[in-house]
Design brief:
55% helix, alpha+beta
Length: 74
């Protein structure tokens, strides 16, 4: 899409035989649609990296240096 999103739609034939269809599909067409931003996988990768020990130490240092300078100037 023009706004930077990808739209994924399920196959109606696959959803018809699924036992979880009533919980998952709510549209009248019988399709499940999912919208994701084109950069979503990058955001997920960053969140995974932030949870590692290296990521935690880098973020801690950032709070002490970069954020502190903004707080002082403010």
């Amino acid at each position: 899409m023009r706004q930077g999103y990808n739209v994924y739609e399920s196959n109606v034939d696959d959803c018809c035989v699924c036992p979880l269809r009533n919980k998952c599909v709510t549209s009248k067409t019988g399709k499940k649609a999912m919208t994701r931003h084109v950069w979503e996988h990058y955001k997920e990768e960053i969140m995974r990296n932030n949870k590692t020990e290296l990521g935690k130490s880098i973020y801690k240092r950032r709070k002490e240096t970069v954020e502190r300078s903004f707080a002082n100037s403010k």
